[in-house]
Amino acid sequence: MELFWYIVLMTMLTIYVILDGYDFGAGIIHLFFAKTEKDKKAITNAIGPFWDANEVWLIAVGGVLFFAFPTLYASSFSGFYLPLIMILWLLIFRAIGLELRGQVQNKMWEAIWDKAFGIASLLLALFFGIALGNVVRGVNLGMVTDGVSAHEPHYFFLPLWNPTFSPQAEHLGIIDWFTLLLGVIGVVALAIHGANWIIFKTNSKLNAKLKKVVFNLNFVLLALVIISLLIWHIIEPKPFHNFIQYPWLWVFPIITFIGIFGLFKVKSFQKDGKGFLFSSLFLFGGLTSTVASIFPKMLPSTNTINPDLTIYNVAAHEYGLQVGVYWFVIAAVLVAAYMVIQYKVFKGKMDDVGYGEH
Amino acid sequence: MEDMLFYDRMQFAFTITFHYLFPQLTMGLSLMIVYFKWKFLRTKIDKYNDAARFWMKIFALNFAMGVVTGIPMEFQFGTNWAKFSELTGGIIGQTLAMEGMFSFFLESSFLGLFLFGEKLLGQKLHFLTGFLVFLGSWASGYLIIATHSWMQYPVGYEILENGRFVLNNFGALFSNPWLMPAFLHNQMGSVITSSFVVAAVGAFYLLNNKHSEFGKLFVKTGVIFGLISSILVAFPTGDWMAKNVAEHQPVTFAAMEGIFETEEGGSEIILIGQPDVENKKLDNKIAVPNILSFLTYQSWDAEIKGLNEFDESVYPTNIPGLYYAYHIMVGLGTIFIALMLIASIQLFRKKLYKTKWILWILMLMLPFPYIANTTGWYTAELGRQPWLVYDLLRTADGISPTVSSGNTLFTLLGFIGLYLLLGLLFLMLAGKIINKGPETTKLN
Lengths: 358, 444
Known about the structure:
The structure holds two protein chains of two kinds. By secondary structure, chain A is mainly α. In chain A, 68% of the residues lie in helices and 3% in strands. Chain A has helices at 2-33, 37-47, 51-68, 70-79, 81-100, 107-137, 177-201, 206-235, 241-245, 251-263, 274-294, 318-345, and strands at residues 144-145, 148-149, 297-299, 309-310. A two-stranded antiparallel sheet of chain A has the order 1-2. A two-stranded antiparallel ribbon of chain A has the order 3-4. In chain A, a hairpin with a 2-residue loop joins strand 1 (144-145) and strand 2 (148-149). By secondary structure, chain B is mainly α. Chain B has a domain at 212-402. Helix content of chain B is 71%, strand content 6%. Chain B has 15 helices and six strands. In chain B, helix 8 (179-208) packs antiparallel against helix 14. The longest helix of chain B is centred in the middle third of the chain and has 37 residues, at 212-248. The model of chain B has no long low-confidence stretch (mean pLDDT 94). At the A-B interface, helix 3, helix 4, helix 5 and helix 12 of A face helix 3, helix 4 and helix 15 of B. Chain B: It comes from Winogradskyella epiphytica. Chain B: It is a multi-pass membrane protein. Chain B: Keywords: Cell membrane, Electron transport, Heme, Iron, Membrane, Metal-binding, Transmembrane, Transmembrane helix, Transport. Chain B: GO terms for molecular function: electron transfer activity; heme binding; metal ion binding; oxidoreductase activity, acting on diphenols and related substances as donors, oxygen as acceptor.
């Protein structure tokens, strides 16, 4: 049962990253590359009818985490207190940036909400990357100092940073050079992903330029991924032990690299959706490879006193997990149906949807 | 430690109070938009569709505010109430996860279609998407109140040795006797808010002599919906709720009614007075004898236990707050019924649109259903204190063990600043939409 809900949770998380990821990416592109009013309109039209439903995946991920793995939910949400609340604030700015911009026709009003939308999207991509870094690196569970736990073994609290910014320091911070690297990967990967979505869903004049942007950023992404793999062993002494034990898991890293290398051909793609497909593969592969490397851990412990949080010691009780399967299957079928309807109605190019013209 | 509990409670209270200003309008207004749309489909009169379109603009803005302030609610269970989440997540996580899966996806997927898809979908399908948005928002209310009901009246659980609550009967979460009365009472409260808002905007147009045709439609619709919901919120749903509290939480009942002494021969109902908890008495009392006994048990001399019968350790934490919240709610509810009755009579006599003093009152009443809904929730929540799970888990034992009070104060201040901004923006933009008024179009 734990394994079932773990797979459900990770699937939902991946869907969230792929879907809201293109919204964040579109925000980053909007911030740096959208110069004219037409460019901006194209971008907001491309994500306008979707971003809200995409954000619901985050709420659903939170809900399933709460219900299936309540100890992990309690431990990680209180331990990562400050960045989580800041993510909430940023989500608010992203949303009102998008929704309020079109409400008043005034250049200054529009400029404020354009920046709110763009900057919040950028920081969200950065924060989510940093969050992934924290999960991989692990935390000082039980807040052990000198071999003594200050709290119950599954609780912890991290400040935003420590003075050394080192992932190996005794007192860890949320932002260190390792987690920051993953944050930057998040920004670059989602910028590519968002650009691909805009190319896919619009006939904007921006598209030709965005193809070049994707091509160039893809080099940066490849370099950052290689660097992160080279230093991975500093964080995790045996990064590949799961892959050695279960060789079929290599399929995930292979998908990741298919995604990256596929994108180098972005300039010659005939179909506009192809780039989006490859960046989705990259995100899917990258995320699954990362969690596969630490499985069955969900939050590793950096001390030797308290055990890692794994899918087995943080899960809810058996009966609840079983009964949840029934309603979840029904709900999942419904959600799939909604998505089919939604994307069917808004299929093809979105240039004329008139988002924000209330 | 005391500070931590205080800041955690303040942050939750502040964020949920602000948040619930929006969903109460969302739920009620979705029903009324569906009504306008349905009326348009039946009569083919364009003004109903224009009315639906106009309220959709307010709805979209309001919905966005509800969404952005709603996500912090789900996160805060984990960030600020980690111990509570850990101990009860196996149970309340069920209903909260179901809310995400069943209602938020429904609402958000079809809201996009509803707002941007009228041309693409055609009128009938467009009506259907509106109906689905309504269904999603009410399902969300239902599942949240299922969660709330479990905290008020825990069912279907067992407690393990390590203090964890585990579910042993899923069906019990939904057959909880607390759930149906609370859900219906709350939904009627939300329809009251939307009817008063629609009526107030209509009255504003009539008094201003602009968009008069819409003004009449809004006043009429608002008054009819308002009359029905104001009556239903009191009877049977409110009555049913009060009886539930009297039966299952007698100390809460005594506190919210302001009853200190158990009176032989039946208890009076307190209309006005200030509780003096230190000296266990009520100052400046205006009361009507025996009514409370009759309302609660349909018997003039039924015994109602006063606060003095209970040990102080089980007293609600804030008795005066609870008492005022309850009395403000009930007092406003009574005023709502009276106002809507008078307005309905004038409507029936075809004089309402010219009766200026009623239109003025309808317009100025706009904030009060929000106050009534908020104080109603304060009654429920303060009534449950000092418990998170009634009689089983104390609020003080539910907070996050590792988050310092300084961190919580930091985020509380942040939320206050940010929500102040959101509130101002909402008022400004809603005012702009209302001032501009509905646009008339020709479809037929």
